[in-house]
Amino acid sequence: MFSQRDKDSISIRSYQSGDETVLSAMIQAALRQVNSKDYKPAIIEKMCEKFTPERIKEFSAKRKMFVAINAEQIVGTISLIKDTIFTVFVDPTRHHQGIGTQLMKYIEGVAKQDGYSSVVVPASVTAHDWYKNLGYQDVKMTTSEEHGTNFVMSKNL
Known about the structure:
It is built from five helices and eight strands; from the N terminus they run E-E-H-H-H-E-E-E-H-E-H-E-E. It is of the alpha+beta class. The two termini are 21 Å apart.
């Protein structure tokens, strides 16, 4: 349905059955290597449990899911339910290369095409400032024993 290529040879395509194993490993690596700077080990492990290959396959049935590809390898992912963006992760070895920003612009375009004038994203402490730099504003902060501190952020499209 959607496809995008840019000068960095990143393409974005819809999730395909079989992507879940690579996505699970990539998301868990990002949680353990990046988000672990802001969250306790117990919270990281609970989050990792939410991103098993089986759970990702379940998500794909309920969400519009996309993956970023470079040199035929999955390097990022993002998903959307109505006006809410979920599961924004980039391979931790590929951070700071613009992949996440490309995924966000892409999904914002999908939401706009679907008729939404704004989007919402649940943001980790780790990604909070990055989302702010993309134009997202805080709506509220939440704290729980299971997920730690997180933010709900929104942006007009």
